[in-house]
Each structure stands twice: as structure tokens, then as C-alpha cells.
What does this fold into?
Amino acid sequence: MRYSRYFIPTHKETPADAEIISHQLMLRAGLIRKLTSGIYTYLPAGLKALRKVEDIIRQEMNRSGAIELLMPAVQPAELWQETGRWDYYGSELLRFKDRHQRDSCLGPTHEEVITDLVRNEIHSYRQMPLNFYQIQTKFRDEIRPRFGVMRAREFVMKDGYSFDAEEPGADKSYQIMFDAYNRIFKRCGLQFRAVEADTGSIGGSFSHEFMVLADTGEDQLVNCLKCDYAANLEKAEVHWGGEKAAPLSGEWKPLEEVETPNMKSVEEVTDFLSITPQALVKTLILRSGDRVLAALVRGDHELNEIKLKNLLGLDQIELADPKIVEEVTGAPMGFAGPVGLQIEVLADHAIRDMKDFVTGGNKSDLHLRNVNVERDFQVAQFADLRVIAPGDACPKCGGEAHFGRGIEVGHVFKLGTKYSKAMGAVFLDENGKEIPIIMGCYGIGVGRTLAAAIEQNHDQDGIIFPIPMAPFEVVILPLQMHESEVAETAEKLHEELLGFGLDVLLDDRDLRAGIKFKDADLLGTPLRITIGMRSLKEQKVELKLRTESESTLIPLRETSRIIREKIKTLYDSIK
Ligand code: ATP
Ligand code: MG
It folds into this structure.
């Protein structure tokens, strides 16, 4: 490709509205342009990189036996009403009416569409297992679109759906996808981890998120330094040893009221009373529909709403608004406590180890000291209700847990029969009995994977693309285009490398060398060949890897061979 005839509009300045480095670099390197909030155009070089990620995904999906199809972006409301998601999905679902006033939406995901297809076409266990996938544009009206294509409203996703007649087969389909995803992200040249993720009301441990490790990631993850355990922060269990449990009676101090004028937060109260947060119990009032309940966690711990939701088998739970809090506690927000509360009280296991603790007093500007479970209030259920925290042990082996951040690029999920039951996707077993099909779903954010790769691979000069997704594998950089010897050598090498099927960019622009070097670094092309009058006199050209700071002179005659070898080495190093 000749740079002068191509289109890579680069910028020197960091765009003001780009918060994270991958977003800044994708704009500066001329890979994407914003149309409007969360909606982007892929410019030619950006599209090339995106296609390379797609190609890797496609190859590995096909290799694993999945079958590609393409479903529509526009979906009728009726299908979403069948599964109940028309109401449940919320404002992320972009809805509209067509000219006949029929309700429609832009697909944020395709469980309904694929299940509709399968219920019409699959009737026998003999037709399964089946695994369909597509690489297609999704629309989600994200509340906070940001980070460029990382959290966009319109984005390209690979989504796949498996269909099995029996549980063991469904588990196998899941495992096949799990393995394929590991190969995909490995082939993309990424540092990643598959972590256990929440399965919500469906239950079981059959959900993994694939996280690209990056400090700027929106997700938090925990992994064990001793065993292979890794989980999304919200999923990680906290085991309660039970050995320190407070005595149930006997040595308790008398309950005491203490005035705490305007002291609401844990910090304010503990400072005021000169106690540690470990000696205080937070009382959170939550609401799920009409059900209002209290959850207790230790002052330094954080309630994990997902654990609570799963424990109670609820679809949704949220912190109650101030009005409800006042109604049930009789006090303004910040003074809730379990003593005398008339609603159901659940408590985290850690509370069992506490005695003579501090809680809110259900009265303005009042807290209670020396509160004890059983004597002062009853707990309906103790459970693991909190977010794992530094210092907690690995739930699998008791080893040391490490906390980090990541970007979720892929998600595999065993769905079970949620959609097939709701939509009547059934097959007839050997005895002619109707059985719901067991499904799995598997997604990869294609654009997000590309952005995550940049987030993980860059320096102060620009992107350092892992070679499998670099728009170009080699850039040829002639220093003096007006010198015919330089120009001819560059043209010849360009032709030759193209002949070997390489992705080559010839920077034939009549610009200062400094600008060309800067652009080459910014775009992150793994290999750079510099051709200049001085080295040509010795029949040499300069080779530099984007990952290294030093360049080497190589014989002109052997340039093509050396480049091909280098490229092969680069690909081999990430296989
Ligand atoms: P997130 O928690 O980041 O919103 P999600 O759980 O909603 O993700 P899934 O429904 O599992 O995502 O979608 C599959 C994949 O699609 C995700 O793993 C992610 O890589 C990608 N993806 C999801 N939302 C977006 C988005 N707004 N922009 C770009 N990619 C996205
Ligand atoms: Mg989302």
C-alpha cells in the first residue's frame, strides 16, 4: 500500500475528550473517527485491524465446529415480548416503530432471533449439537458510552449460540467454546485471563469472562497466587472460617445509646467514637419490588448486591431510596440499625465474629454501642454477602488472593433452557416426548478486543501492535523520496514483499523523515525498514522492530528474506 494514495489521517495532539490511552491513540493514529456519542467510523487502517481480529475469531470458531450465519440488526418486539425482555431490558434497548406502527428494536444481542430460528427448524435430537455464530453490528444505548469503541453504542460483536439435547453435550459445547476463546485471545497476542463470572438467577458455575489485563480496565478481578483460581470480583466467594465466632451469651456489655450529631458515614462515626470500622456494623436497606429488607456488613466491608440477589433468587435488587429508608427505620438516611427494625434482616458471615459493636440507632443523630446479635436483634439468615477484599484468602485453596483490573473482551455462558422454554424451542426425544433445547451463548467484542490490545501494548510514541492485528506488518520508510536510487529501492522492496503476501505500507510521501518516523511509531507497525542514501552506498538498509529501541543494518540483497524470517518469528512467539 502506498501511503500517498491511502488514508491514514494522523494527529499530533491528544484529543481532549479521550480519557484512556487506547481511545487517544486510535484517534491520533487515524484508525477511528467519532460520528456522535458512542458511534464511530472505522477508517481504512482501523478497519484492516478489525478485520484481522475477525479473521482470527472466524478461523477458530470454524475450527471448533461452529457454523457462521448472519442475522438481522432490526428485530420485532414480539420476540422480545415472548421472553419478557421487552420490559426487562430497560433503556439500553433502542426501540422504534416502523411505518406500520409495529414495535421494533435494534438488536443488542440475538438470543430471541436465534431461538426463533431454531424452534422452527430443529425438531429432533438427531439434528444436534449445533453451534451458530455471526460477526455483526450490535446496538446498545449505553448510559455512559466512553473509551471510544471500548464502550460504544454501536459495535461489532461475535455472538454464538449452542444447542444441545442433553446436559453432558451442553457442557461439552461450553468447553469447546471456552477452549476456542483461549486460542483466539492467545492468537491475538494478548495477556488475558478467563475468570469465573456471575451466572445470575440461572445459577451454576458455567460462566466465564475473558479479561484482558489492564490497569485502566472497568472490571475488577481476583486471582490466586497459589492455584489457578480467577474470578470476577463480584463473583468471588468469601469463606467464613467460623472459628472466631462471638459467644452467643454471657460476656456482653450493656446496650448503650450514644449521640452522634450529623455523623452518618462510617468514617464520621468511627472517628467520632474513636473505634475502628471493624467494630461497626453497616445496615443497608434494600428493595426488590415491594419487598424491603436490611443487609448487615462489617464497617470495612462492602455489600455485594449480586450475592444477595442470587441468595434470594431475585431478578433485581437495589438500595432503597431515602423515603423508604425513613419509613422503615423512622430516621433519616445514615442512622439505620438492626435493633427494633421490623423488616427481614440478613447478615454477612463476618458479623458472627463480632460482639459489642456499634450500629445506627434508627433515630436522627443516634447510634448504639455494645449491640449483640440474638440479645438485641434477630438475623433471619447469615450468608456470604460481601465483596472479597485484600487480605481475604483464595476461596479455592486458601492461598493469597491478588487483585487486579481487566477489560472484558469475551463472555461464555451456559444458558440452560431459559430461552428455549420461554419460546418453545423443543425437540422430540426417542420416545416422542417434547424436551426444551439446552442452550449456551458466547460473545466477543471485536472492536473492544482491538482497543484492549492497544491499551495493553503502547508506549509514549504510540501503539505497539501485536503483529496478528497490526494493519500493516512492515512499513518501508524511504528517507529521501526525491533521490531516485532511494525511491527505486523502496518501490522494488515494496513489490517484492507484496509478492510474498505481506501487509506492507510504503511511506512514499514527500515529507520530512521526522514526520514519517513519528507516524510509523504512532501506527505501531511491528517492523520498519528505513532506506537512505548513506546506508545504500554500502548496499545496506536499516531494520527496526517497534518493540526495540535500537535498529540494525542489514544487507540490501537479503532484506526480503530477513523480513520474512522476522515476521515469522514474531508470529511464532505468540502462537
Ligand atoms: P459490559 O459488562 O462490559 O457492558 P456485557 O456483559 O454487557 O459487557 P455481553 O452482553 O456479554 O457484554 O456482550 C459480549 C461482549 O460484547 C462483551 O464481552 C464485550 O466484549 C462486548 N461488548 C459489550 N458491550 C459493549 C459495548 N458497549 N461496546 C463494545 N463492546 C461491547
Ligand atoms: Mg453491558
About this structure: The chain has 15 helices and 31 strands. The pocket of adenosine-5'-triphosphate (ligand 1) is lined by residues 109, 140, 142, 151-152, 155, 157, 408-411, 443, 445, 447-448 (CB under 6 Å).
